[in-house]
Each structure stands twice: as C-alpha cells, then as structure tokens.
Amino acid sequence: MLDLSLPIHPTTGLRGLPPGFPSFDTDPNHPFALTLSRRAPADLMSGRAAPLVLARFATLAEAMQGAIDHAEGIAPDTAPQLLAILDRDERLVLAGSASDGAVAWCHPVTSAAEARGVVTEASQLRAQAGRASAWGEADLAVRLRRRADLLDARLVDPLWRAFAARALQVAA
Questions:
Q1: In angstroms, rounded to a whole number, what is the distance separating the alpha carbons of residues 118 and 139?
Q2: Which has the closest alpha carbon to 84: 93, 72, 73, 76?
Q3: pLDDT tens, 138-154?
Q4: pLDDT tens readout for residues 25-62
Q5: What is the reported pTM?
Q6: Are 5 and 23 spatial neighbours (Cβ–Cβ below 8 Å)?
C-alpha cells in the first residue's frame, strides 16, 4: 500500500484552473459539470486522476457554452484539452477536444454494438502506443493515446446518447 505524505484534496473547486479561465457559477446543485481530464502521470499515481471540475451549469446548453468559453481562453500553441460534461451522477453526457478557441465535440455512439467496437479500437490504439513507447517513438505514442482518448469520449452513457446527439444537431 502506498503511504502518501501529502493530503489529497477534492477536485470539486476551482483550484488549478488555467490562467484566464472565467469564473463560472459553482453551485453544487446544478446538474451538469464541465470537467477537464487529468491524465498526467503524477495525478494518476497520486490518486488524483479524477477529472477537475471547472464549473457547474443548470443546462446542457450552458455547459456546452462554458466549454466554448474555456476553449477561447486556451493559447493557440497549447496542446488540445479533453473536456467532458458529466451529470450529477458523474455519467458522461458529452465530451470534446478544446483547442485554439473551439471545441470539437465527439459524437456519441448510437448502440451497444458500436460502443464495443469503439472500446476495441481504443484498446488496440493503446497497445500500439505501448509498442511505440518501447521503440522510443514518444511522439507517436502520445498521438495514439490521444486518438484512443477521443474514441473513449464517444462512450456517452446510454441514458444520454440520444439527447447528446440531438444537442449536437441543434448546436450545428
């Protein structure tokens, strides 16, 4: 068992936000949480790999707009960030890649069969990333893991699949 000497703080506050991120309403009663994926090795090893809650919103449309506002604050030379909107039960509602002032939303899978295919493909990409790392191809490994993460972002909770797909149609 690991003995951590530093306390692990909850991630529900606005601590650690990127510079220039607007302060949104953080009312815990709002059902939609805009989160930022934390995949840094230090976060994974310390048990803090849970996503960082950036803000909470009353509606999905407001959460999507909050993601766009966040993306507008990202510097053009910064790596894309994986944002996710979770409901109050921490089920994935919608996810996307934020960079250079825009969010590229990942279209949710439409069926369990499609979800299985996505999981299989993401697993294969992660295996390829592991081999690329072993061969000393760190950049390729990062790109492959990023593609796998974007595939995983399509795995919207079955409860939200149709609703999220419709929200993307309306937003387009």
A1: 23
A2: 93
A3: 999 999 999 999 999 99
A4: 567 788 899 998 866 555 555 566 678 889 999 999 99
A5: 0.77
A6: no
